[in-house]
Amino acid sequence: MSDTLVRSEAPETAKTIESRLLGQSVTLTIPADSFTSGDTRWRTKAIYEPFLTARSLPRTGTAIDIGAAYGGFAIPFALAYPGWEIWCFEPDADAFAALVANIEALELKNVVALNVAVSGDIPEADIPSRLATLIAAGLQKADPARIAKACPEMPFRQHREKLGYVESSLGVAPHEDFIDHDYPTLPASALTGLKPTLMKIIAPGCAKGILETLRDSTLDFIVGEI
Questions:
Q1: pLDDT (tens digit, 9 = 90+) per residue, 123-175?
Q2: Residue 214 belongs to what domain range?
Q3: Would 5 be classed as within a structural domain?
Q4: Does residue 6 fall inside a structural domain?
Q5: Residue 169, Cα to own-chain centre: how many angstroms?
Q6: Cβ–Cβ contacts within 10 Å for residue 188, how many?
Q7: pLDDT in tens, 193-218
Q8: The model's pTM
Q9: Which residues contact 198 (CB under 8 A, 6 or more apart)?
Protein backbone atom coordinates (compact mmCIF):
# COMPACT_ATOMS: atom_id res chain seq x y z
CA MET A 1 0.00 0.00 0.00
CA SER A 2 1.40 3.38 -0.95
CA ASP A 3 2.06 5.90 1.78
CA THR A 4 -0.20 8.94 1.86
CA LEU A 5 -0.02 12.36 3.42
CA VAL A 6 -2.89 12.98 5.81
CA ARG A 7 -3.90 16.63 6.15
CA SER A 8 -5.89 18.01 9.01
CA GLU A 9 -9.37 19.24 8.17
CA ALA A 10 -9.58 22.94 7.42
CA PRO A 11 -11.13 25.01 10.20
CA GLU A 12 -14.56 26.50 9.62
CA THR A 13 -13.07 29.98 9.82
CA ALA A 14 -9.98 30.50 7.69
CA LYS A 15 -6.83 31.38 9.59
CA THR A 16 -5.38 34.77 8.80
CA ILE A 17 -2.21 36.68 9.52
CA GLU A 18 -1.19 40.32 9.31
CA SER A 19 1.61 40.73 6.77
CA ARG A 20 3.84 43.81 6.67
CA LEU A 21 6.35 44.51 3.92
CA LEU A 22 7.45 47.63 2.03
CA GLY A 23 5.07 49.82 3.96
CA GLN A 24 2.14 47.57 3.12
CA SER A 25 0.02 46.05 5.87
CA VAL A 26 -2.46 43.43 4.73
CA THR A 27 -4.45 40.59 6.26
CA LEU A 28 -3.80 37.33 4.43
CA THR A 29 -5.40 33.90 4.57
CA ILE A 30 -2.84 31.25 5.50
CA PRO A 31 -2.75 27.44 5.23
CA ALA A 32 -3.49 25.35 8.31
CA ASP A 33 0.09 24.35 9.15
CA SER A 34 1.81 26.88 11.41
CA PHE A 35 5.25 26.21 9.89
CA THR A 36 4.45 28.00 6.64
CA SER A 37 3.26 31.22 8.24
CA GLY A 38 6.05 31.26 10.81
CA ASP A 39 8.71 30.60 8.20
CA THR A 40 7.35 33.33 5.92
CA ARG A 41 7.26 35.86 8.74
CA TRP A 42 10.87 35.09 9.62
CA ARG A 43 12.02 35.40 6.02
CA THR A 44 10.14 38.68 5.62
CA LYS A 45 11.89 40.22 8.61
CA ALA A 46 15.34 38.67 8.14
CA ILE A 47 15.68 38.57 4.35
CA TYR A 48 13.05 40.31 2.24
CA GLU A 49 12.62 43.59 4.09
CA PRO A 50 16.37 44.29 4.47
CA PHE A 51 17.02 43.36 0.85
CA LEU A 52 14.25 45.45 -0.67
CA THR A 53 14.65 48.54 1.49
CA ALA A 54 18.34 48.69 0.61
CA ARG A 55 17.65 48.81 -3.13
CA SER A 56 15.90 51.08 -5.56
CA LEU A 57 13.61 49.11 -7.84
CA PRO A 58 12.23 50.48 -11.12
CA ARG A 59 8.55 51.47 -11.36
CA THR A 60 7.83 48.56 -13.70
CA GLY A 61 9.21 45.06 -14.06
CA THR A 62 8.46 41.37 -13.81
CA ALA A 63 8.90 39.45 -10.57
CA ILE A 64 9.07 35.66 -10.24
CA ASP A 65 8.15 34.19 -6.85
CA ILE A 66 9.31 30.57 -6.66
CA GLY A 67 7.92 28.93 -3.54
CA ALA A 68 5.27 31.62 -3.11
CA ALA A 69 3.34 29.85 -0.31
CA TYR A 70 0.27 31.96 0.55
CA GLY A 71 1.74 35.14 -0.92
CA GLY A 72 3.53 36.59 2.10
CA PHE A 73 6.09 38.16 -0.23
CA ALA A 74 4.23 38.46 -3.53
CA ILE A 75 1.08 40.21 -2.35
CA PRO A 76 2.65 43.08 -0.37
CA PHE A 77 5.14 43.44 -3.22
CA ALA A 78 2.30 43.66 -5.75
CA LEU A 79 0.60 46.36 -3.67
CA ALA A 80 3.81 48.33 -3.26
CA TYR A 81 4.72 48.03 -6.95
CA PRO A 82 1.44 48.11 -8.91
CA GLY A 83 3.36 48.65 -12.16
CA TRP A 84 5.00 45.24 -11.84
CA GLU A 85 3.75 41.83 -12.99
CA ILE A 86 4.24 39.05 -10.44
CA TRP A 87 4.27 35.36 -11.34
CA CYS A 88 3.85 33.02 -8.35
CA PHE A 89 4.77 29.34 -8.36
CA GLU A 90 3.66 27.11 -5.47
CA PRO A 91 3.36 23.29 -5.60
CA ASP A 92 1.56 22.58 -2.29
CA ALA A 93 -2.22 22.48 -2.72
CA ASP A 94 -3.13 24.07 0.63
CA ALA A 95 -0.65 26.93 0.32
CA PHE A 96 -1.73 27.48 -3.29
CA ALA A 97 -5.42 27.64 -2.30
CA ALA A 98 -4.59 30.33 0.28
CA LEU A 99 -2.53 32.21 -2.33
CA VAL A 100 -5.39 32.25 -4.83
CA ALA A 101 -7.85 33.31 -2.10
CA ASN A 102 -5.62 36.25 -1.19
CA ILE A 103 -5.17 37.36 -4.79
CA GLU A 104 -8.93 37.24 -5.36
CA ALA A 105 -9.81 38.94 -2.05
CA LEU A 106 -7.58 41.91 -2.88
CA GLU A 107 -8.64 41.89 -6.54
CA LEU A 108 -5.04 42.01 -7.68
CA LYS A 109 -4.73 42.20 -11.45
CA ASN A 110 -0.94 42.17 -11.56
CA VAL A 111 -0.46 38.74 -9.93
CA VAL A 112 -0.92 35.26 -11.40
CA ALA A 113 -0.55 32.01 -9.44
CA LEU A 114 0.44 28.61 -10.81
CA ASN A 115 0.14 25.37 -8.84
CA VAL A 116 3.53 24.01 -9.96
CA ALA A 117 7.08 23.55 -8.76
CA VAL A 118 10.05 24.94 -10.69
CA SER A 119 13.25 23.04 -11.47
CA GLY A 120 16.34 23.33 -13.63
CA ASP A 121 16.71 19.54 -13.85
CA ILE A 122 14.08 18.53 -16.40
CA PRO A 123 15.51 16.44 -19.27
CA GLU A 124 12.73 16.62 -21.88
CA ALA A 125 14.19 18.98 -24.51
CA ASP A 126 10.87 19.90 -26.15
CA ILE A 127 9.02 20.88 -22.98
CA PRO A 128 10.68 24.24 -22.23
CA SER A 129 9.85 25.72 -25.64
CA ARG A 130 6.24 24.48 -25.49
CA LEU A 131 5.70 25.94 -22.04
CA ALA A 132 7.56 29.12 -22.92
CA THR A 133 4.98 29.70 -25.66
CA LEU A 134 2.13 29.43 -23.14
CA ILE A 135 3.86 31.76 -20.70
CA ALA A 136 4.78 34.26 -23.42
CA ALA A 137 1.07 35.02 -23.81
CA GLY A 138 1.56 37.34 -20.86
CA LEU A 139 0.04 37.71 -17.42
CA GLN A 140 -3.38 38.94 -18.52
CA LYS A 141 -3.82 36.05 -20.97
CA ALA A 142 -2.12 33.41 -18.83
CA ASP A 143 -3.99 30.12 -18.37
CA PRO A 144 -2.55 28.64 -15.14
CA ALA A 145 -4.45 25.36 -15.46
CA ARG A 146 -3.23 24.81 -19.02
CA ILE A 147 0.35 25.64 -18.09
CA ALA A 148 0.23 23.23 -15.12
CA LYS A 149 -1.21 20.49 -17.30
CA ALA A 150 1.65 20.89 -19.78
CA CYS A 151 4.29 20.52 -17.06
CA PRO A 152 5.90 17.11 -16.52
CA GLU A 153 5.63 15.59 -13.05
CA MET A 154 8.87 15.44 -11.11
CA PRO A 155 9.72 13.72 -7.81
CA PHE A 156 9.71 15.82 -4.65
CA ARG A 157 9.24 15.07 -1.00
CA GLN A 158 7.17 16.91 1.58
CA HIS A 159 7.69 17.08 5.33
CA ARG A 160 4.98 15.17 7.17
CA GLU A 161 4.41 17.87 9.79
CA LYS A 162 5.87 21.02 8.22
CA LEU A 163 3.68 20.76 5.15
CA GLY A 164 5.05 23.96 3.64
CA TYR A 165 8.50 22.42 3.36
CA VAL A 166 8.86 20.75 -0.05
CA GLU A 167 12.19 19.78 -1.58
CA SER A 168 13.45 17.91 -4.62
CA SER A 169 13.93 14.20 -3.96
CA LEU A 170 16.31 13.65 -6.88
CA GLY A 171 19.43 11.98 -5.50
CA VAL A 172 18.18 12.29 -1.92
CA ALA A 173 18.00 9.28 0.38
CA PRO A 174 14.55 8.46 1.85
CA HIS A 175 13.81 9.85 5.29
CA GLU A 176 11.01 8.91 7.67
CA ASP A 177 10.06 12.56 8.23
CA PHE A 178 9.20 13.01 4.55
CA ILE A 179 6.76 11.52 2.10
CA ASP A 180 7.36 11.28 -1.64
CA HIS A 181 5.13 13.44 -3.81
CA ASP A 182 5.19 14.10 -7.56
CA TYR A 183 4.36 17.67 -8.62
CA PRO A 184 3.82 19.27 -12.02
CA THR A 185 7.12 21.07 -12.55
CA LEU A 186 7.92 24.02 -14.76
CA PRO A 187 11.37 23.96 -16.39
CA ALA A 188 13.31 27.03 -15.26
CA SER A 189 14.27 27.68 -18.88
CA ALA A 190 10.62 28.47 -19.66
CA LEU A 191 10.87 31.49 -17.37
CA THR A 192 13.29 33.32 -19.64
CA GLY A 193 10.39 34.32 -21.90
CA LEU A 194 9.02 36.44 -19.08
CA LYS A 195 12.14 38.62 -19.16
CA PRO A 196 12.20 38.65 -15.35
CA THR A 197 13.61 41.59 -13.42
CA LEU A 198 13.47 40.11 -9.91
CA MET A 199 13.29 36.60 -8.53
CA LYS A 200 12.38 35.57 -4.99
CA ILE A 201 13.33 31.94 -4.57
CA ILE A 202 12.65 29.20 -2.03
CA ALA A 203 13.37 25.93 -3.83
CA PRO A 204 15.25 23.38 -1.68
CA GLY A 205 17.18 20.98 -3.89
CA CYS A 206 16.32 22.96 -7.03
CA ALA A 207 17.84 26.38 -6.38
CA LYS A 208 21.24 25.65 -7.93
CA GLY A 209 19.73 24.31 -11.15
CA ILE A 210 17.30 27.23 -11.41
CA LEU A 211 20.04 29.81 -10.87
CA GLU A 212 22.33 28.14 -13.38
CA THR A 213 19.54 28.04 -15.96
CA LEU A 214 18.75 31.73 -15.49
CA ARG A 215 22.32 32.96 -15.18
CA ASP A 216 22.20 34.71 -18.57
CA SER A 217 18.63 36.00 -18.21
CA THR A 218 17.43 39.56 -17.65
CA LEU A 219 17.40 39.22 -13.85
CA ASP A 220 18.74 42.24 -11.98
CA PHE A 221 17.66 41.20 -8.47
CA ILE A 222 17.62 37.83 -6.69
CA VAL A 223 16.46 37.40 -3.11
CA GLY A 224 16.18 34.21 -1.09
CA GLU A 225 18.16 31.75 0.96
CA ILE A 226 20.37 28.87 -0.13
A1: 776 777 788 888 888 888 889 999 999 999 999 999 999 999 999 999 889 99
A2: 16-224
A3: no
A4: no
A5: 18
A6: 25
A7: 899 999 999 999 999 999 999 999 99
A8: 0.91
A9: 57, 61, 62, 63, 64, 219, 220, 221, 222, 223
DSSP string over 96-125:
HHHHHHHHHHTT-SSEEEE--EEES----T
Q: Rounded to an integer, what distance in angstroms lies between the CA atom of residue 40 and that of residue 73?
A: 8
- In-domain check, residue 10: no
The CATH number covering residue 114 comes to 3.40.50
Residue 184: what are its φ and ψ, rounded to 5°? -60, 135
Half-sphere exposure of 144 (CA within 13 A, CB side): 16
Q: Give the CB-side neighbour count of residue 130, counting CA atoms within 13 A.
A: 12
- Residue 172 falls inside a structural domain: yes
Number of domains present in the structure of the chain? 1
